[in-house]
Structure prediction request, 1692 residues.
Amino acid sequence: MMRPRLGWGVGALLPALLMAMPAFAADDGPPKIDTGDTAWMLTSTALVLLMTVPGLALFYAGMVRKKNVLATLMQSFVITCLVTIVWAVAGYSLAFTNGNAYLGDMSRFMLHGIADHIAKGVDTGFILGAGTDGAAPQTVPETVYMMFQMTFAIITPALITGAFADRMKFSALVIFMTLWSLVVYSPIAHWVWAPTGWIAGLGVLDFAGGTVVHINAGIAGLVCALVLGKRVGYGSDNMAPFNLSYAVIGASLLWVGWFGFNAGSAVGANGRAGMAMAVTQIATAAAALGWMFAEWMTKGKPSVLGLISGAVAGLVAITPASGYVLPGSSIIIGVAAGVICFWTATSLKHMLGYDDSLDVFGVHCVGGIVGALLTGVFSYGPLSATDASPDGSPGGLDQLKIQAIGVATTLVYSGVMSFVLLMITKALVGLRVGEEEEREGLDLVLHGEQIF
Amino acid sequence: MMRPRLGWGVGALLPALLMAMPAFAADDGPPKIDTGDTAWMLTSTALVLLMTVPGLALFYAGMVRKKNVLATLMQSFVITCLVTIVWAVAGYSLAFTNGNAYLGDMSRFMLHGIADHIAKGVDTGFILGAGTDGAAPQTVPETVYMMFQMTFAIITPALITGAFADRMKFSALVIFMTLWSLVVYSPIAHWVWAPTGWIAGLGVLDFAGGTVVHINAGIAGLVCALVLGKRVGYGSDNMAPFNLSYAVIGASLLWVGWFGFNAGSAVGANGRAGMAMAVTQIATAAAALGWMFAEWMTKGKPSVLGLISGAVAGLVAITPASGYVLPGSSIIIGVAAGVICFWTATSLKHMLGYDDSLDVFGVHCVGGIVGALLTGVFSYGPLSATDASPDGSPGGLDQLKIQAIGVATTLVYSGVMSFVLLMITKALVGLRVGEEEEREGLDLVLHGEQIF
Amino acid sequence: MMRPRLGWGVGALLPALLMAMPAFAADDGPPKIDTGDTAWMLTSTALVLLMTVPGLALFYAGMVRKKNVLATLMQSFVITCLVTIVWAVAGYSLAFTNGNAYLGDMSRFMLHGIADHIAKGVDTGFILGAGTDGAAPQTVPETVYMMFQMTFAIITPALITGAFADRMKFSALVIFMTLWSLVVYSPIAHWVWAPTGWIAGLGVLDFAGGTVVHINAGIAGLVCALVLGKRVGYGSDNMAPFNLSYAVIGASLLWVGWFGFNAGSAVGANGRAGMAMAVTQIATAAAALGWMFAEWMTKGKPSVLGLISGAVAGLVAITPASGYVLPGSSIIIGVAAGVICFWTATSLKHMLGYDDSLDVFGVHCVGGIVGALLTGVFSYGPLSATDASPDGSPGGLDQLKIQAIGVATTLVYSGVMSFVLLMITKALVGLRVGEEEEREGLDLVLHGEQIF
Amino acid sequence: MKLIMAIIKPFKLDDVREALTPLGVQGLTVSEVKGFGRQKGQTEIYRGAEYHVSFLPKIKIEVVVPADLADQVIEAIAKSAHTGKIGDGKIFVLDIERAMRIRTGEVDSEAL
Amino acid sequence: MKLIMAIIKPFKLDDVREALTPLGVQGLTVSEVKGFGRQKGQTEIYRGAEYHVSFLPKIKIEVVVPADLADQVIEAIAKSAHTGKIGDGKIFVLDIERAMRIRTGEVDSEAL
Amino acid sequence: MKLIMAIIKPFKLDDVREALTPLGVQGLTVSEVKGFGRQKGQTEIYRGAEYHVSFLPKIKIEVVVPADLADQVIEAIAKSAHTGKIGDGKIFVLDIERAMRIRTGEVDSEAL
Ligand SMILES: Nc1ncnc2c1ncn2[C@@H]1O[C@H](COP(=O)(O)OP(=O)(O)O)[C@@H](O)[C@H]1O
Ligand SMILES: Nc1ncnc2c1ncn2[C@@H]1O[C@H](COP(=O)(O)OP(=O)(O)O)[C@@H](O)[C@H]1O
Ligand SMILES: Nc1ncnc2c1ncn2[C@@H]1O[C@H](COP(=O)(O)OP(=O)(O)O)[C@@H](O)[C@H]1O
Prediction:
């Protein structure tokens, strides 16, 4: 999403046509919706949902053992359902209404008022931060904006599940994720993306969620992996993935869906969306090749798991940068993410000895940090320039420092709060299945089902 | 699709811009196309096709036994092909031309005339019911409207296949589905969605096909299950699904594709599409959780099959309501659908003793009825209001009664005609494979292929 | 993509609205972008990427033996990554800048200058062939045009991999495909689709890539199959596909994604896109049924592999024709493609005795030729008419001859250059794995991984 | 003790197991196997490549029983697995020298 | 020579293999089987249809050893596969008359 | 009667079956197994986790023949399954006491 502090959204997102008719822009009423922008945002919403179900569900399910495939699919699916309700009831309101610098208010509780502008089937554009200095009129209805944001709120907790794959109780997951969405996700989204948010106010650049989504989920995953402990048999049993072809399908759908994630974060079908799509594609390819060649050189063979892991690392790293950088920079971001995440997931993890089953920390947190910091280096001014701020937010040492604050804040808040919520969940229902149950597999034990 | 009787389509679907330029709207010529609306309808068409292949194909294939996986996939795929041709040749013409109150005419036989307005590569908008009182100008070309509707005509018979999974002859399927598309689907689509249709004239609300698609397919499925009889070994053999991960992928793609189904039924990228997408998402999540918790409480474990079945039940139930209701109502519709369909599929079916293999009746017919009736309760006026009808069609007892007529008509007509067509098919080629063949599995017997 | 020689693109692609405001159209500056057209092209880009990963990857992986499933998936995935980088660095520049009649220039090396028109986050429309007689202004930013074209550059070499499935070295694939993209794909794309290209100058019609993509990949595949030789055990061992359900998912995603391929080639959400989508659907269904019934009659059973192969043959054949023909013609094109490709893949291949593992030649080259020639027969004038050329390019004997030249040129150039590049690759790293390795399977030998 | 090894049609497994329980058989082990025999399979055709399915799916049951129970067990299997159609399968009997239950260390007939 | 056939819990396979190596066992063959016995499985419910999982996944190990090694091998398996919980499995011993290594044509104890 | 149990390389299955037909062998049963032996497998690496593939895919053939045919059958298998490379597999011979054809109730050599 755009960085609203500068208010450039107005200029960038109203269609060119309206700018040519100043009489419209000067109107005090809500902006008109643009059908092209709305079409793209409806599509982007579908694409981002596709990322979680079946994308992420398959990516993860393909990496676990046969006895946990269905349980792993179920985790992403149930989170999709839970967060949909949480978001509609309170999450959206906490994240995207004005409130104060730390949290939204409850004016959109139960989505109350979201239909206020509908008359005769027609809706008006949504003004994010209406009434504040940073008010950012959009050319899409609020329902569409709310839905697009919902898909981000869904995928973030779903990402965490990779860290504790094969061992968490289902009841614990339901409780923890519901709380996490409200207590961790909504506040951080507010800080970074609401015009009134304090991190937005610092000028942190996070186009599509490097901090809000990936660093946030990644550090929460690490905390989960540490608190739950290693899988039974970790280090001795063969834990080879049951069926990597699922993981390949999953990674592919993540890639395709990520066009909605990143190019959709332009909230319109405009030049910025086009550039976001281009740099997303290039960084992803560069990261996949980076990981692949690093693995080929150090381990002797290029693996399909390596290639797709690199692609995901690239997608993660370009996320915060996607609306700010040019193609050349995206290659650098991609290669850096691919090689660094390769090292984290294959070496650092073993050195430190935690069992982050599917490398949520190694790929999402580390990749997110690489991307967030390099956004501060490579940001290209004209992409974020506005009338009010004709230079935009060009990269440089200053911006890098601002970015580091965003990263550090997210790490600390999400890490600490995830720990607290795990403790609460543990007190309520316990976190982990028994050893026998873990051996038998979650599919049968938790859900009474198995695949062939 | 909109309810054309009130003619509100004009106001709702012409882009806001045109409304600001009355000179255009007053034109007598065909409407101009809007690129944003057209973009969304092209996308929606792709999304709805995705629902059938591979969505529904996988959803069903994941629930059958290994020996029938390919045959089940093939059923959805061949229906996609057959109905495409049937629709282009006559189905579209019978459904969407003016004709009389019961059937369209043959003026679009072989899509004759669909290119009449193309000049220099540019097309005009399509006027549904042109020349009638209910004429509803659209901002998309007729090719796009025809294609979008085709994807609905495809998925409806494909839904039926779940009821007779594992036992129907392929030749019988080819004949039955071809006839069914012409004799059952096209007329019902005409009644409900053509401006001249008699059910449309009653004021029945069916935004995206609760009656035309789901009740219709669901009751046809029940008739098929009863006429074909139970699977060999039903009740004694282990008929556990071969690979539920396919069903999870299928359900996920159904969910994503359903955005095209419901939000696409606004025939434009407008406020109504946004609200349709939002309520679709919320009802689906609510239904999935409703089924899951009902199962958890009564059976002791929440299953992945239950969760995804609930999601599909929610998608079905919100379908007729999606362009008429607000988020709060969608939660109620979702929970009702989830819990009621859970009961139908797990208890009622056994009480009544029919073998509807994959619960087409229990999920689609029952879910569709829940949705169709609750649409009559919860419809929110401003979503369907127009200049001509400033109150729209608000829910209430009157509307509920009208809805019940739509439901009953569909149940009777589709049930009876499906039975007749099955008898005709039986006379021609027989309906069911032999017992030995059924034991060996349709993959090998009918198609000479098998999976590993 | 459109045929720029006639310059009709201008009229067809600027939105209707602008035409109504001549003051805008007369502007000398770059065209404005249209949000609806841009939304559709962003979507189309995602759809075409979906065709390769996971679409084509699954289509192919489902047809090989278990031991090669991951390696086959990896081939499509790594080509996606490699070509992305190759295209961004030089491929796009060689294909779509003016250069001369045979090759573009290096003015877009490293995508240099693609952000020149971005100011305050807003971009302008892209003028293809700017400054030449054939200049074709587009209503989408150049980033979007470049990305859409990239997805075509990706799928073309990926198609080739089916011909040498189960036996090529991974290192050889990496080298060969990188070279092929630059030396074969980019030049042919330039000839046919750049306004300055010599084949475009002849008036060859290739709407979405019958020659550039399918004939090109198909003949290259044949050359690969001949040069690499038959698989070990070909003709004696059981090489039955491991899991055709993957192939069905793949074919389905190809079908859905092909809407982006063909309707996206209208470079806008317009009437031509709508017609392209309609004929794509109809031809595909006709071809699938054509293959199915041909097989049913000659082999006794309709197979799912036959049905989906027919669908792909239809998609291939309609590709060059999709923006030029009407629904009636599309049925003929479809049936012809289905029946002819059935014969090629099941009879001709055995008569000639080459081992084109997954029928790249039989489906893509032959299907492409059928489509390219029939485009010359059935092209409907008004779809390609412009102010400058009010008759468009109607089909007829003249056009058929022109089409044949396009076909022949592609066959010869791609065939010869593919052979040369294979020889270079062979000299560098060798082409084929050892016999023992081939027996053990590429998954384990090349990538150190296997599925269950 | 005897090891009774039976190759049967897959859909007969549950019938066989139920036929053995009344005899006091408390355990058995089954595997999915492919059988080649008089029963002929289908032909699979994949785009012109024909493969005859000469190996058909069968279930192998292995059950170790005290020698004196062998006759009854054989009879029970033969009856419950019978369809009369070609491909019904075979029953073979082997001698078992020793048996041990891993959990308890019990041996021979105690272990079955 | 004796054929030691052991049915064990799947996750014990690596332990067993490691226990046999020190005894000089250089080869063995394993298969995935389903076991029916005293150990009871879960119930699976698919939309109201209940199936009891009476067959549980087990691993069958077949290892042929010289007769004089049999005792040690049995003991090693019994120890390494032991958990003490129901379902640990069985060990059966059969007599092998002849053995041959295909690669070299060596026979009997040379072949193991 | 003898049970000939052979562990062979998977791609040799068709060769072996064809070598047995001329000898009058009318039925056999095969299973997919994993073999551990002198032949060493590959290493699989999944993001830094290394697993050595110590078990390689093999095919187990079980064929019961009249005692007098055993030598010929062993020889035919040994020849047709031979590649000379490590991992070619083993042939074991066991005694079968009784055999029965389920379809007809025929016993012993009639049943094969
Ligand atoms: N001599 C044999 N050795 C081992 N297994 C055999 C033998 N003969 C038959 N079988 C097994 O028995 C199955 C059934 O045999 P088949 O000849 O097809 O029919 P039937 O049992 O009716 O004579 C075969 O598929 C095979 O698995
Ligand atoms: N008589 C038998 N013949 C063949 N296999 C048996 C026999 N009894 C038990 N088994 C195998 O041993 C496994 C374990 O037996 P079970 O009775 O469950 O527990 P335990 O070994 O602790 O007594 C079974 O699952 C089955 O595979
Ligand atoms: N003692 C044994 N008992 C059972 N199976 C064995 C034994 N030794 C070897 N095998 C089987 O034979 C296969 C081949 O043995 P291996 O030692 O790898 O090569 P080779 O047969 O060339 O000596 C093994 O994978 C295993 O399945």
User: Anything to note?
Assistant: The CA atoms of residues 376 and 400 of chain A lie 4 Å apart.
